[in-house]
Structure formats: structure tokens, C-alpha cells
Amino acid sequence: MAKIDPDKLTGPQKAAIFLMLMGEEFTSQVYKYLDEDDIKRIGIEMAKIEYIPAEAVRKVLEEANIEAKEMLGDVTVSPEEFLKQSLIKAYGEKGKEIFEEIKKEIGPETFKKLKKLDPKTIASFLSNEHPQTIAIILVHLDSELSGQVLQFLPEKLRAEVLLRIALLNKVDPEIVKEISDALESELQSVGGALGKKIGGPEKAAEVLSHAGRELEDEILSEIEDENPALAEEIRKYLFTFEDFLNVDDFAIQTLLREISTDDLKLALKGASPEIREKFFRNMSKRAADLMKEELEMMGPVRISEVEKAQQNIIRVAKKLEQEGKIILSKGEEEFV
Questions:
Q1: Domain named Flagellar motor switch protein FliG middle: which ranges (predicted)?
Q2: Counting C-beta atoms within 10 Å of the first and last residue's C-beta, which end of the chain has fewer, N or C?
Q3: How deeply is 313 buried, as exposed, middle or buried, from its count of CB atoms within 10 A (0-12, 13-18, 19+)?
């Protein structure tokens, strides 16, 4: 189950929260105006939700320009049950089929149990599994958690697992079920997808982006030795802090309004002079001068703190791109 972060809500998450707030009847009517793919996208997010905090409710209502003080509390209704009932109201028996497809796409119950364990425990649990099995399991977990698990896997396994994630296309649901059943037995001993595309270079890059820069370079070098074309494909999907050099000024200005000064200061501390200048150029003279002064006064900081701040900013940038507010281009794409 997913914990909702009010500051990092995606479009499908906002839609899921809004529909749950408006009730089953309203939601069942909305479904009739959406195509099945959109319903599944929203439904998957809805089914993943553990609970909705009041702050997330407030932000969604504000964005929808709705004032409803009586709604400003934690939402405790079962998202999965809500999804099922609203789909049945909209489509009858067909609604049940869509619900079952959504459940399969978010993976078996066993994978949900795995998400509750810490990354080190999951890595230890999976370290003796075949790399293909590990890859199938990791693509069913959140990318951030998968990246953390990757860090704790034996060194000889890391590149092989990411290589297999990148090459995954479709997985027979029977294989997923077999893996789930085997995991369930192992979990008990210690106290997905319906042919849907679940891996690929983009997913591999997403997982790798959460594994740390040093490990990122190391694993990509190993994959490049074995499959240079695939390594290049993965790199296309990896957005680094230095790639902000190729982002237009409007996007940088929009981003600056959404990120914290502390994150920016730490991120720029470990950035190249060119990147620093890119951000300074898009700030007011007073704000830029103040930031330069603070950077000069800063003592040494851990690389891990710099990378964390840079990742925070990249996450905000990707969220803004998802919302259609900015475009993140690495400078090679053409636009008309």
C-alpha cells in the first residue's frame, strides 16, 4: 500500500483522492466519460492508497477550487472497496472485470506484504533468488524502494538485475503467481500484470535514479560492457541535476517557486559553476547575491546530502512536467 505525500501528489493520485471525496455515485458517473486506460491509471493509484491525510485532502480541494470544511479530515474509507463499488455502479459485471484487472496490475498480495519490509531485509530475502525473479519482483515495488533494495543486493547481482529489468517486456501472469506463491511460503517460514509491459529501459532508469550516483555510474558501466545500446537507452531516461543546463529559463523560474531554499543551497553546493550560474540567472539579483553569499559561508557537506537535495529538486521538476507546467528537455529533442 502507498503512503500519500501531500507535497508530491501526482496527477492520477489527485484524481483518485478527488473522486473518493466526491463519493461512489459521482465517481461512477465520471467513469462513463473516461476511457478504460484512464480508469485503470486512476484505479491503480486508488487501490495502492493506505490512507489519505487531511493535508492531501486540503491541497486537492484547493486545486479544484472547492471549499468544504467538513471534508478536511483524514479519509479512512477503504480505497479498494470504494474502487470496486464505484466501478460496479458504472459498469455492472464489466466493472468487476475492470476491478480484477486493476488488482492484477498492482501485483499479488504477497508483493504488498514485501513493501512493508525495510530495503535491507528485502535485499537479504531476495539475494539467493535468480536475477530474473528479483527483476520481476522489483518492478512491482515502488521505484524508490526498488532503488534502495538494489543498493543492498550483492555487488555481482546489481547490474544483472537492472539489465533484466530493462529487458523485461511482458510477463506471463502464471509466472508472477508462481513467484508470489513461493514468496508467500518463504515469508511464512520467517514470520500483475496480464501481459502488461512492466519493465523496460525507462523503468530501469527510474529504479537506478534512487540507488545513488556512485552506484548508478558503476552499474551503467557494467551494462555498457555487455550491451552498449541498452546502456545508452537507459541513460536517455536518466535525468541528472546537470541536465538542468538544457532546461529553458521559464522552467527554471517555475521550479524555483516550488522548491525549498535549503534544498537549493545544498544542491548548488555540489553543482558545477555552469549549473550555479543557470539558477542564479533566473533569480532576482538580491536572491542570487544572497544565495552566493550563503554558499561561500557554507562549510563542507556530505555528498549524500547534496545528492539527496538534488534528487528532491529533480522530483519536483518531474512532478511539474507531469502536470504539464514545464518541459524537461535534455537538449536533443526538437519541438514545434
A1: 119-191
A2: C
A3: buried
List the one residue out of 113, 200, 212 whose CA is nearest residue 158.
212
Q: Residue 2: left if φ>0, alpha if ψ -120 to 50, beta else—which one?
A: beta
Count how many Cα atoms sit within 13 Å of the Cα of residue 207 in the half-sphere of its side chain.
Answer: 32
Residues of the chain with CATH 1.10.220.30: 110-237, 241-322
Residue type, 153: L
Q: How far apart are CA 256 and CA 133, in angstroms?
A: 41
105-159: pLDDT as tens digits: 655 566 666 777 778 888 888 888 889 989 888 887 778 888 989 999 998 899 9
Specify the CATH number of the domain 241-322.
Answer: 1.10.220.30
What's the CATH code, domain 110-237? Answer: 1.10.220.30
Q: How far apart are CA 264 and CA 244, in angstroms?
A: 13
Q: Does the global pTM surpass 0.85?
A: no
Q: To the nearest whole percent, how much of the chain has pLDDT over 90? A: 16
Comparing CA positions, the residue from 145, 141, 166, 270 lying closest to residue 219 is 166
Q: How far is CA 57 from the centre of its chain?
A: 20
Q: Cell 511539474 identifies what position? A: 320
Calpha distance 35→320 (Å, rounded): 24
Residue type, 334: E
Q: Which of 43, 139, 138, 45 is nearest to 96 (CA)?
A: 43
Q: What angle do CA 301, 302, 303 make, to 5 degrees?
A: 115
Cβ-based neighbours of 277, under 8 Å, separated by 6 or more: none
Q: How many helices (H) and strands (E) does the chain have?
A: 20, 0
At CB < 8 A and 24+ separation, what contacts does 179-188 make? 179/133, 179/136, 179/137, 180/107, 180/108, 180/109, 180/110, 180/111, 181/110, 183/110, 183/111, 183/114, 183/137, 184/110, 186/125, 187/110, 187/113, 187/114
